[in-house]
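Field reference: sequence -> structure
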Amino acid sequence: AFMPKFPPVNWWVTAASVLVFLPMYFGFFWLRGWRRIAALAGIVALAVAVMPANFFANTYVIYASILAAHLALNEMLGVFLIANAAFAGAVLYLGGPATTVGLINGLSGGLAMFGCRFWYQNARKNQALKLSQLEVQRIAALAERERIGRDLHDLLGHTLSVIALKSELAAKLIDRDIDAARGEIKEVERVTRQALFEVRRAVTGMRAHGLL
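Structure field:
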């Protein structure tokens, strides 16, 4: 609309092509295997078909190149070369500047494709690193819980043994020496309170909960 020197644009064909392009673009992220390559082939075919109605249909080729960054390296390069060759061939067939269009597509699409591939790979590495860090944290938390469990077992086992012995002693002394029995009962109370304190301190680290 702002460049009258370029060939006229058929806006109806352009609008219709966008409606065809969008399902293939978003569908690419849901597809797997050869279906992804088929979606990219459809986008390139759409670019070639729309190019007579809109000279800037090469934008679809650039989008196909960017999506190809998700593929394996050989598949990515194959899609990139075939897509640009097909579009340049269509321009040549219509008598247009095929070399210029090919260079523009190759440069812009290639830079975008490799830039996105680098970003995708870096994002995957960061995600894997984050998952490994979360796994290390989970294992560390599990080990800490096991340690606390062992400590509680040892602590409660010893404390309950002391309480049982002193309670038994107090029961034997209650008829012969009431003061001594009271002393043993107070000792049971002291040991119990000390055990409660130790248990609370031991389980403090178990009260934090993550989102998972």
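Note: The chain has a mean pLDDT of 84.
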